[in-house]
Amino acid sequence: MKPEEMERKLMPDVQRLPEQDVLSPFSDASGDRILESKAKMQQWTKEDYLNSQQQVDRINRTLAEAITDGESPESSRVQHIIRQHYESMTQYYTPTADVYKGLGELYVEQPDYKKLFDSYHPLLAQFLRAAMAYFAEHELK
After folding, report:
1. DSSP E strand stretches across the chain
2. For a 10 Å CB count at each end of the chain, is N or C smaller?
3. pLDDT by residue (tens digit) across 1-39?
4. Helix, strand, coil in percent for the chain, rounding step 5
């Protein structure tokens, strides 16, 4: 797939969500996470961005396979994938346990995110939320 095609596939309406709308419910009063995210992303090249999107795509595909294989969100295989997801998030900002669990909630509740995850597997958003909550409770506390 050509980079411009990858960009179209991986950048649905979610890309249009203002960063503040994603982070603000979980940010502290000073907005440190928003500032951290903006500062990090200002340093990115288009290649960095496309690599990040490809990584997210691989994670989503692997999680969809895990669902199909009957894995639970708490399984060691899934938690290994979720660790990769968490580490990919640190490219933008460093999520606390509460922020990471809140992001999982957002994936289910926000229609554009839900639509994105449904394109991989109809249960992916809920599965991801459960796996992220488990990870946050066991790895980020």
Report:
1. none
2. C
3. 333 344 434 444 444 444 445 555 555 533 565 566 566
4. 75, 0, 25
Q: Which of helix, strand or coil describes residue 35?
A: helix
Cβ-based burial of 117 (10 A; exposed 0-12, middle 13-18, buried ≥19):
buried
* Best CA proximity match to 60, nearest among 12, 139, 121, 112: 121
How many C-beta atoms surround the C-beta of residue 138 within 10 A?
11
Query: pLDDT tens digits, residue range 83-104?
Result: 999 998 888 788 889 989 999 9
| CB neighbours of residue 86 within 10 Å | 19
CB atoms < 10 A from the CB of 104, how many?
25
Quick one: CA dihedral 104, 109, 112, 116, positive or negative? Answer: positive
- Provide the 8-state DSSP code for 14: G
Burial letters for 46-58: b for 16+ Cβ neighbours within 10 Å, e otherwise?
eeebbebbeebee
Question: Does residue 63 register a pLDDT over 70?
Answer: yes
**Sign of the CA dihedral 26, 13, 61, 89?**
negative
